[in-house]
Amino acid sequence: MIWMTIKFIFLMYKFHFRNKVWDDRTIAKWNILVTKLAREYRNKAVELGGVLIKVGQFLSTRTDFMPDAFLKELSGLVDRVPPMPFSYARKLLEEEWGGDIYEYIEDIKPTSIASASIGEVYLAKLREDHSDVAIKVQRYRVEEIFHIDFKALRIVFWLISVFTSFGKKADLPSLYRELITVMNKELDFQQELKHACYFQERFQDNKAIHIPNYIEQLCTKKVLVMEWIDGAKITDVSYMHRHQVSTQQIARSLFDFYLEQFLNEGMFHADPHAGNILIQQDGTIVIIDFGMVGEVRKQDTHYFKKLIQNIIMDDYDRVIETLDEMNFILPQANRKKLKQMIRQTIAMYQNGSLNTMDAHTMEQLKEDIRLFISDQPIQLSADYAYLGRAISIVIGILLAIYPDIDLQKWAKPKIKKWFGGRNLAESIYKQYVKDAVQPVLSFPKAMLGWLENGEKERKWEREKQQKQLTHNYFVLLEVICFVLLLVSVSCILFGYYQNLGRLTTIAISGASIFAVMMILLFMKHYRNIRSK
């Protein structure tokens, strides 16, 4: 993990050092490099499993600072690893249950039906009522392995903070703590049981949704036992057609279920991919796997409403204040510039100009947003990042099930209720209509301000970023040369005292080469600094 991080950093700095001008061709080459690195990470994660997969899944939620090409490559990263021997699963079950497993079950299939980095799932039959159950067993030494990997991960975060721009625009110690907290929760199956019981209670009156029942007396920190569910993935439209299940009704039920979680106070299902949402023959939707959940606090719903109201009322000072209260903006951010960018972007959306702008203007807008986000210290908390990821996954599933979905029509009555009733919703809507009736006047004004103020700033930002990257590149090379010089000196001393003449000669040659390289790097680095 550590060496892979060093390799990635070196390749990225090498690219920036060789490409001084960032035109369309350079950006395309950069995206190819990032995609290549992301694919290498994904393949290594699939090969080794464990923390690498969990880190990849965590990073795939971080749209606030991860490159698009990297996000696309990691978005499909699925937690699948080779199965462990059944003998370990049986031993752990006997330890957790305090006796022979056949005191509690009649039969269990020794081949697991699912295998992930944290647990294996087996099909079994209970002795008490002869019902089929799914038994999830924690993998061999997974907790010990994860905590060893956590130490390596801490070094990786330190390298990223020192040698990349992430250290300036992201609170990496906070990200590290969030990541460790998330993975530690997934290691405790009692937490998953608690989450499942919460969703059972919260949605007990929703007849379209079923949360599996758990055999709580057999559940421990390392074992989960739940009812067996027969069904197909929620995206299996042909299955629905075969059983005469309305895809529109299924989409509507799923939409209502998740919108309730996203808008209102409480926990939300943070991993709603198609493998965790099943459809049964009678049209019942089954939600499984509550190892990963997020939380919408009461204060969060208040923030969401304030953001919407202030944007509609064109009060961007309060928009920035709300984002500050949500801890989206780190202390060193340029709030004036952030307000300007939000205002200009929203103005274009309100005027419908994003549908009519030519390709060049659209690409320029995307480039400005990319440069701004890469420079400004903006960071989402884990819950907000997981919320954004969950929303995007659910929308993708809804479109796969029912392509003719009208999200605005379905959401409107629920949003109106969420805002507190008809009067408040109507007053905000009237203000929005009032602002939106002036597209002819407001769009040219917003566009003119954007183009006048943006060009010089864009050029300055590119130059500033390029100089900083060049400086960091020299620092990285100097550190590498210094480490290799120390290794060479150590080999000289070792060879001298052990009378290893050949080793001493080679080490002296290496030390000389690295010393000369360091001197040349220092000189070139110094000239680079003076040129600024």
From TrEMBL:
Keyword Transmembrane helix: yes
Transmembrane regions: 384-402, 473-497, 503-523
The entry's keywords: Kinase, Membrane, Transferase, Transmembrane, Transmembrane helix
Superkingdom of source: Bacteria
GO molecular function ontology, one term from the record: protein kinase activity
InterPro entries, sorted: ABC1_dom, Kinase-like_dom_sf, Prot_kinase_dom, UbiB_kinase
Domain Protein kinase: 107-474
SUPFAM superfamilies found in the cross-reference section: Protein kinase-like (PK-like)
One Pfam family recorded for the sequence: ABC1
Keyword Transmembrane listed: yes
PANTHER family in UniProt: CHAPERONE-ACTIVITY OF BC1 COMPLEX CABC1 -RELATED, PROTEIN ACTIVITY OF BC1 COMPLEX KINASE 7, CHLOROPLASTIC
Family: Belongs to the protein kinase superfamily. ADCK protein kinase family.
Protein name: AarF/ABC1/UbiB kinase family protein
Organism: Virgibacillus salarius
